[in-house]
Amino acid sequence: MNQDPLLEGREPTQPRTLRDNPSGSFLIRIWTETREVDGEPPRVRVFLRNLKTGEEHYLGDLDQLGETVLRQFQKVDELP
Question: In what order do the strands lie in the sheet with 26-33?
C-alpha cells in the first residue's frame, strides 16, 4: 500500500496539520475602475483575503491572483 507522502511519519491518531492537508479558503472581490484618461479601458482590481490567516492583498490586476494564492501555500511549506 502506497502512503501519501504528506502523511508520512504521522501516526493515525495524530491530528492533521496544515502541512498534511494544504488547503485554503479565500474571499475574492473583483471590480473595475474607470480611467481618468479618455479612451483608456477600465482597470480590473482584486481584493483577496485568506480566511484562515486574515492576510489581505489588494492587487492591481487579475493576473496577480493565482501567483498570490500560490504564495499562501508556500508559507505553509515553511512552517516548522
Answer: 26-33, 43-50, 56-59
DSSP-derived 3-state class of residue 27: strand
Q: How confident is the model at residue 1 (pLDDT cuts 50, 70, 90)?
A: very low
pLDDT band at 17 (very low <50, low <70, confident <90, very high): low
Q: Any bridge partners for residue 49, and if so which? A: 27, 56
Q: Calculate mean pLDDT across residues 20-43.
A: 87
User: Where do the structural domains in the chain lie, given as residue ranges?
Assistant: 25-32+42-80
Of 73, 61, 60, residue with least CA distance to 26: 73
* Residue 61 φ then ψ, to 5°: -160, 165
Helix or strand run (H / E) with residue 76: helix 64-77
